[in-house]
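A student in our group prepared the protein record below, which I am reviewing. This is what I was given:
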Amino acid sequence: MRLRPRSFYLSLLTAALAHALPALAADAELDALDLESAPEVSTPAAASNTKVFFEGAWGNAEQRYAPASRALGRASLDLSYAGKLTPDVRAVFSDRLDYMDPAEAGSDATVNSLREAYLSWQPGGGNTIYELGRINLRYGPGYGYNPTDFFRDGSLRTLTSSNPFAMRENRLGSAMLRAQRLWQGGSLSVAYSPKLEDRASPSGWDLDLGATNNRNRGLVALSTQFSQKLSSQWLLYKEQGESAAVGANMTALLSDAAVAHVEWSNASELDATSRALGLPSAATRRNRFAGGVTYTTLGKLSVTAEYQYNGFGASQQDWVALSTAPMSAKVAYLIDARARQELVSRQALMLYVTQKDLFIKDLDLTAFVRFNTEDHSRQSWLELRQHWPKYDLALQWQQFSGKSDSEYGILPDSRIVQVLGNYYF
C-alpha cells in the first residue's frame, strides 16, 4: 500500500478546521446539554434492546526495524443487550469477539472479551439499586487519561483502536457486587470486587477473571450535581495490601460553548519504573491529575486541550536512566504501563478534535495528538468516517514519532493506515 505523506493529513485537518471556524462568529446559542467532556464511541440507534454489529479492518504498517511493511487484518463481532426481565430486574450483557491477523505477541489470534454480564435489581422502582456480576465501572471525564478510573488496570484484552474512548468501551468489567442509592442531584455507590483468580489468562476464550479480579478491591463513589453547570464525583478506593487512595473529578460549564474538566487522585504505591523492573523501592504518596477545556462551535467542531500528570510515571531523569538500560528493560516498562492503561511519562499533553458533517452530511473527522513532554515523542491519529443507516466506512491513519529510546519512537510500527467497515444488524 502506498502511504501518503504526513503533509497530506495535516492539510486535511487544517481544511476541516477552516471549514468550521467561521461558526465561532455566530450569535446563536449552543445547547449546553450537547457539550460532553468525555464522549463515548457511538453506534446507530437501535429500536430493540439488542445491538449487534460486525467490523472488518484491513491495513498496512510501516515497520521501524524491518525493511518491509506488514499487512494487518481484523474481523470483529460486537453484541450488547440491556433490558428488563421483570419490572424490578434488569439484565445487561456485552461481548466482543476479535480475530487478529497477525495475532498480538503472547495472545491467541481469536480473543473473546466478555465486557459485562450482570443483573440489576431496583426494588419497587425505588431509589436503591443492587447489581451483581461483571460490571464495567468507568469514572472520570478526562479524554486521554483518567486518574479516578480505578478499575482500568488489566482490563484491556485486545487493542483494536488507539482512540481512548474506544479503549474504554471495549475493555473488561470486573466481577463485583454494587449497591447504589439515588436522590435528586446525586448518588452514592459502594462496590466490592473480590479476588477470584491469581493472574491473567493467555487463552482467547477465557473469561480472564485473573486480569480483573486478581485481588480484593473496594470503591465508594459520591456523585453530586451542584447545578446545571457544575457536577462532581468524590471517590475512595482500597485494594488488598495497599493504602487507601482518594480521588475527585469535576465538570463545569464555562459558557454556552466551553466545558472544563479536572480529575485528580492521590495514592501510595511504588513508582512505575521500580514496579515494572522489580527494583527495590519504598511506596510513596503522590498525585495523578488530568485537566482540560473543550470548545464546541455551531459548525459542529469540538476541540479539547488536556494536560496530564502522573506522579509515579517516568521523569526526564528516569528516561535518561532507561536510555542506558537494556532494551528489554524499556520494553518491560512500556508493557507494564500499557497493561495498567497508565500514563507512561510524568507529564503529557493531548489535543483532541472532532468535526461532524465535514464538507458533506454524515462525514465525520476525529483526530488527536499525544505528546510526551519528558522524551518529546508523540502519537498522531486521524480518522475519516462516513455514516449510512446500516453501515460505516472509515479511513484511519496514525504516526508514531520520536527518538529510538522514547515512548513512541521505540514502537515497532512507525506508521499505520487502515480501512474499516462496520455493518449494523
Remarks:
- Confidence is low (pLDDT under 50) at residues 1-37.
